[in-house]
Amino acid sequence: MHGRRGQEGAMDRSEKKRLREHIGEHVDVSGARLSDDEAQFLGDFVDNYDDDYRGRSDTHTKSFTGWSSDGKYTRDETYTDTFTDEIGIRADYSYQDDDGQKGASSTEIRDARGILNWFRDHR
Length: 123
Fold this sequence. Notes:
This protein is 32% helix and 34% strand. Helix 1 (13-24) runs parallel beside helix 2 (36-52). Strand 3 and strand 4 form a beta hairpin.
């Protein structure tokens, strides 16, 4: 059992290092501490990206009423998550208030921890 953690099914160091290097060819793993399960998930994500993710997009909207110094307003928000051509996720957000105020932002998620957090938040 040299080099193993002693847990049944746990990856040994060299196996985890190879998996981390494989993941690192596609997403930024610098500074990310990955559990065995997280490393395995990201390995599967990278290996299956073309078939299961690339080009897939999901949009959802929500609306709420709030208060400002000008009074009551209604805001419509749109969230669109798209799996991009390169391995990663583009998260687009836009809003429009019934008084004409509007805005938008877009974020690219291409690092290991960001991808893991996205999946944690969207399951």
